[in-house]
Structures are given as structure tokens and as C-alpha cells.
């Protein structure tokens, strides 16, 4: 479990802290949703968790042991908002192998199956994939690193209804084997999929109301 204890973040250039003494627990099997308006600090929260930014106060614990930013970079897989804008590979295969030269075909096949991309051609350009497939590819790239904590920044942003459903359908399964944190400005789309939901307001995390966003049944079928 990854735990944030009183995490504080206040860049000198902004008048108010972006995060004030934020507490959060991310456990395997308990997906967490953090909702918040644009500019409320959602992306910053993910950058702090994944070790891309350094907090000004507070602690991060992994299984009750303090973890520095560098260790959190290994533990976390961050899928950016609009990840398809950051594809670097000329082909799907290259994109999957970025940063991991020694990746067996078996590992790739396994991850592609996990995100529902079994059988896609690795020779094609990522841009040739459909919108939903591109999002799945971005997820696959992170899953290949086998992160213990998966962080998704606005995974439904800019997707039309059917593609959104495709992506949402993956979340339950992804949460089973790792800690999962999704941040979004449209929490209503995630109704029934999360057992814990918070709202980021004035730099603090409060329980998200209405409770309709919370899972009603253990199998998420509510
Ligand atoms: N390193 C930084 N320096 C200055 N301002 C920052 C820094 N990091 C975050 N912020 C500010 O924090 C606020 C929250 O931004 P962000 O995390 O992108 O919000 P969200 O993802 O919820 O839209 C913004 O006003 C942003 O300018
Ligand atoms: Mg953001």
C-alpha cells in the first residue's frame, strides 16, 4: 500500500499551497478516484506520487516504509492526460519497447491481451490506431513496467461515448493486481466503479459527495 501523510506542496510562484497536508491511501484492490475542478491540483498530485515533483512536506510510505521520489518513480506508472500526444515510437512495437530493450514477445503479448489489443500489428504507426486503441496502448506501455501503483490522469478526457466505455471497462480488472488512482474532472462518468472517492478542494482531500460515485455492490455491477 502507498500512503501519503500530510503531503504539502507550495511552489514559491503561487500564493496558495497546491496541496495542504493531504492524506491518501492507495491499496491493491481498492481503486481510488480523486475528483476536482480544472486547476485544483490533480495532475500535481500524480506528479508528486510518481516522484516527478518533490513535496515540500509530509511523507510517502510504501508498505509502511518511507519512499523517496526516486523509488516512487519505479513503483509508479503514470499515464498522462492525452497520452497519445506523447507517443515517441515510429511503430506500436517501438512504443511498447521504449526504455526496455530486453522485452520478450511473451511479455508484450500478455500486456496487449490485458488491455484488449491482442493481435494488433506491431509494425503500424501508433497514430493509425483508433482513439480507444491509442489509450490502451499508452496503458500497455506503463503496464509493461509492472508498476505497483497505476496513476491515470483524466483517462476519459476527449473520448466519445463508446471509446470512453471501452476504457472504463478496463479499470476494474486493472485494479485487481495493483493500486490504482484515477483523477478526473468528470467523476459522474465513473459512478459505481470506485470504492473510494475524494474531492480535491483548496488543496485538501474530502470525501466526494454524492455517494453515487461509490461502488454499490462488491462486484461493481450496481
Ligand atoms: N511547480 C509549480 N510551480 C508553479 N505552479 C504550480 C506548480 N505545480 C503546480 N502548480 C499550479 O498548481 C495548480 C494546479 O495545477 P494542476 O495540478 O495542473 O491542476 P489540475 O490537474 O487539477 O487541472 C495550477 O494553478 C498550477 O499552475
Ligand atoms: Mg490536470
Secondary structure elements and pairings:
Layout: E1 2-9, E2 19-26, E3 32-35, H1 42-49, E4 57-62, E5 65-66, H2 69-75, E6 76-79, H3 92-97, H4 105-114, H5 131-143, E7 149-153, H6 161-177, E8 179-184, E9 196-201, E10 204-207
Parallel strand pairs: 3-8, 3-9, 6-7, 7-8
Antiparallel strand pairs: 1-2, 1-4, 4-5, 9-10
Helix pairs in contact: 4-5, 5-6
The structure holds adenosine-5'-diphosphate and magnesium ion.
Q: What's the alpha carbon Rg, rounded to whole Å?
A: 17 Å
Please tell me the CATH architecture by its name.
Answer: 3-Layer(aba) Sandwich
Strand percent estimate: 15-25%
- Continuous helix count: 6
Strand order of the largest sheet: 6-7-8-3-9-10
**Arithmetic mean pLDDT:** 92
Strand count, sense and closure of the main sheet?
6 strands, mixed
The total number of structural domains is 1
Strand segment tally = 10
Amino acid at each position: 500500500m502507498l500512503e501519503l501523510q500530510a503531503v504539502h506542496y507550495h511552489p514559491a510562484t503561487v500564493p496558495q499551497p497546491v496541496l495542504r497536508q493531504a492524506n491518501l491511501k492507495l491499496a491493491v484492490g481498492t481503486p481510488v478516484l480523486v475528483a476536482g475542478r480544472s486547476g485544483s491540483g490533480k495532475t500535481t498530485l500524480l506528479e508528486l506520487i510518481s516522484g516527478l515533483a518533490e513535496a515540500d512536506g509530509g511523507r510517502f510510505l510504501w508498505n509502511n516504509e518511507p519512499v523517496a521520489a526516486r523509488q516512487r518513480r519505479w513503483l509508479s506508472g503514470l499515464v498522462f492526460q492525452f497520452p497519445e500526444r506523447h507517443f515517441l515510437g515510429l511503430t506500436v512495437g517501438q512504443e511498447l519497447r521504449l526504455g526496455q530493450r530486453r522485452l520478450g514477445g511473451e511479455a508484450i503479448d500478455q500486456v496487449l491481451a490485458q488491455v484488449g489489443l491482442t493481435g494488433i500489428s506491431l509494425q503500424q504507426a501508433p497514430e493509425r490506431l483508433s482513439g480507444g486503441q491509442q489509450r490502451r496502448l499508452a496503458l500497455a506501455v506503463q503496464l509493461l513496467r509492472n508498476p505497483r501503483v497505476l496513476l491515470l490522469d483524466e483517462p476519459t478526457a476527449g473520448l466519445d461515448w463508446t471509446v470512453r466505455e471501452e476504457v472504463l471497462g478496463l479499470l476494474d480488472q486493472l485494479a485487481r493486481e495493483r493500486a490504482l488512482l484515477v483523477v478526473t474532472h468528470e467523476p459522474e462518468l465513473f459512478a459505481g466503479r470506485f470504492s473510494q472517492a475524494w474531492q480535491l478542494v483548496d488543496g485538501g482531500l474530502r470525501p466526494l459527495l454524492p455517494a453515487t460515485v461509490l461502488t454499490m455492490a462488491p462486484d461493481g455491477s450496481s
